[in-house]
Amino acid sequence: MGAVDWVGAVVLGCVACFTLLLLIMPSVIVVAISFTEKEYIGFPPEGFSFRWFVELLGRDQIIESAVTSLRIASFTTVFALLLGVSAAFALVRGRFPGRMAVTAFVVAPQMLPGMVIGIAILFFGAYFAFYQSDAMVIIAMTVFCLPFAVRLVMARLAVLDPTLDEASVGLGATKSQTFLRITMPQVMPAVIGAGAFVFIEAFDNITVALFTSSPRGRPLSVELYNLVQFDSSPIVAALSSLEILFALLIMIVLARSIGLDRLRT
Amino acid sequence: MHVQIDGIDKWFGANHVLRRCDLSVEQGELITLLGPSGCGKTTLLRCLAGFELPDGGSVSIGEDNVTHLAPNHRNVGFVFQSYALFPHLTVVENVGYGLAVRRVSKAKRVRRAMETLELVGLQQFGDRYPARLSGGQQQRVALARALVLQPKVLLLDEAFNALDAKLRVAMQVELRKLVKKVGITTICVTHDQTEALTISDRIAVMFEGRIDQMGTPSEVYERPCTAFVADFLGTANLLRRRSEGGSLEVGPGIRISSTFDGGVIVVVRPEDVMLSQPIEGDGWGGRITFSRLVGPSIEFEIDTGEDRPVRVLSPRRGGDRYSVGDRVALALSSRDACVVLPHQEAS
Ligand SMILES: Nc1ncnc2c1ncn2[C@@H]1O[C@H](COP(=O)(O)OP(=O)(O)O)[C@@H](O)[C@H]1O
Ligand SMILES: [Mg+2]
């Protein structure tokens, strides 16, 4: 037994180190490169400066696309949460025929690659003379992100004790008081978690955005993709560093407000 | 307040769960609905609280017919089997919840919650979250949360189930003292006969969606009116006999009177049967086939030639004269036997 435990610990340790290496190292390298003084991408970086960050902020096109991405992510988050939370309530608490089928239908887009959703919405939109635009990205992104929101909230709702609602009504609360004071506070961690997840996904997703965004108002992910193809300066690394910082900030705020362990539903 | 249930019927699909239940509870009375699991106790309690709508019959609390009133307008205190404390609220907030939804000011709410917590002995736990309380404490919070609203009736569904044996007895006694002090009409649900016998003013014994008998603990124990009630409360010998002309023979030489004629069941408690040395002749008796010590008593099984042995409980002193294999005579005072109709003929 002892020997087996020991071997298990070593294997686990190796896998953990390897995973850590694969996950963390590329990010560390990118961040390191973004502080280089030189004109080209190279590792290890030479010198230390903020020149690529300054240059980045000077490029109107990048700033504009960052604003576009923020706008898209915000709208997508609002729509995905509105639809996702209501759908989750209906699917968990509702009693109607075909509930299982509807559940399968709502979470189905999760099985599709983002590219497929992007192309499908592009073609479908063209049919109604609706073309590539922020609105189209938001619609496609909402479809793409909805299953995550629905699943997270459903998982939380499924473990909520329905007798808490009865207890509340028994104590004199109305249905809406019960919803606001008892149900929502307990579902909130899942809603916030889903919101953060959708926001980050909608902000940096490229497969959906590539097909649905307008060439005149590119989201940041598409802009970055173009940048990498035509410009291999460390500005790309600087942009990536900022995105990493951004995601990190969201995670920290999340952990502070609701606790990371409560995100695991 | 007075509670009156008249002919309540409840169906779940094709399952007839409550069958014309009647129940009348006086102001300030503590009654227990006692019955095996699945007999419909919870459903009856939920009909009273308004969580379940009966398919027929009526429910009145005080002077008001509340049959179709929503649960949030009934002012009935309900303590759930699982307590159903709100996990995201502290103890004080849990207890004050009913006041908060009635828009009572925060200061007043906290004061009343603390007063009620004091009543159940939890005043120092106000800031805790329910997850950090023991089972007994959680139960008392649930009780305080119901009592703070001064409800017309207090309903408790298997409130002691989750507690370990010792604590359970202590809490039962405490509950009885508390509701008597407050003077509130209380209906408890349990499948535990000891609990029912301990805490209640009266017991309603339920079986398959019907209330078979309602009476004081000693009434239902000593004068059960169906074989089911006799069997469910304590142990009983159920002897099949034929009654003719207003009397029947329990055993050779032992006649008791009966109000029914035809096939009946004679209920005899084991502790009411007396053992003695057999006398020559053929009195009621048989051979001891089994004996065991039960605390201060000895339980015997005596084969009288019927399909089931007669169970007898004798005091240890005196009872220890007999052992397995001995022939003994059985005696019974007619006062201690009770005649009921077999189950299928019960009304
Ligand atoms: N919501 C429900 N839907 C369908 N059947 C139910 C429901 N609640 C209870 N029942 C059924 O009604 C019967 C009585 O249940 P219950 O009142 O909970 O019994 P008890 O509390 O005496 O154990 C059981 O057969 C149970 O399966
Ligand atoms: Mg029950």
For the biggest sheet of chain B, the summary is:
6 strands, mixed
The mean pLDDT of chain A is 88
The CATH homology group name of chain A: MetI-like
Number of strands of chain B: 20
The bound ligands are: adenosine-5'-diphosphate, magnesium ion
The total count of helices of chain B amounts to 9
| CATH domain fold name of chain A | MetI-like fold
Q: Return Rg of chain B in Å.
A: 24 Å
Query: Which segments of chain B are poorly predicted (pLDDT under 50) over 5 or more consecutive residues?
Result: none
Class computed from helices, strands and strand pairing of chain B: alpha+beta
The ordered H/E elements of chain B are EEEHEEEHHHEHEHEEHHEEEEEEEEHEE
| Poorly predicted ranges of chain A | none
Could you characterize the architecture of this molecule?
The complex is a heterodimer of chains A (265) and B (347). In chain A, helix 1 packs across helix 11, helix 3 runs parallel beside helix 6 and helix 8 packs antiparallel against helix 11. Helix content of chain A is 76%, strand content 0%. Chain A has 265 residues and is mainly α. Chain A has one domain: Orthogonal Bundle (MetI-like fold). By secondary structure, chain B is an alpha+beta fold. Chain B is 25% helix and 35% strand. Chain B has a six-stranded mixed beta sheet with strand order 6-7-8-3-9-10, with helices on both faces. Chain B has a five-stranded antiparallel beta sheet with strand order 15-19-16-17-18. In chain B, a hairpin with a 2-residue loop joins strand 16 and strand 17. The longest helix of chain B is centred in the middle third of the chain and has 18 residues. Chains A and B meet through helix 7 and helix 8 of A and strand 6 and helix 2 of B. The complex binds adenosine-5'-diphosphate (ADP) and magnesium ion (MG). Magnesium ion binds next to helix 1 of chain B.
